[in-house]
């Protein structure tokens, strides 16, 4: 019986060592499987990160392009604004000059009308009539105003 119990305990040790060997092998396989899984997960993570970086770079390029287009549009609009502002200043200067001329003409007409009302202008055949005086004072028919164009330029206002 001793031999059978010895054989039995020897085989138990053998079974234990085989079991420990199998257990070690299973543990190693699990570790390798976990390592491979972790490597694959890290690779996917790096790929996602690279894709995200590529998307951000594409977005930067697109936004830079849009920004350049907006700046170009703003520059063109600003140049139009400056040109229109200069033209507006010229028109204001011309309007002021024409208003001054009109005021002067109205003063002359008022003076002639008041002088005629006071009897300063006679209506004889030998003297000039009121209409002759007014027509002779027409600023558009004299060379005084014809040779003097309205002078205003953008440089005056800058």
From TrEMBL:
Residues 28-91 form the BZIP domain. Residues 81-108 form a coiled coil. GO terms for biological process: positive regulation of DNA-templated transcription. Keywords: Coiled coil, DNA-binding, Nucleus, Transcription, Transcription regulation. Residues 1-51 are annotated as: Disordered. InterPro entries: bZIP, bZIP_plant_GBF1, bZIP_sf. It holds the Pfam family bZIP_1. This is BZIP domain-containing protein. It comes from Fagus sylvatica.
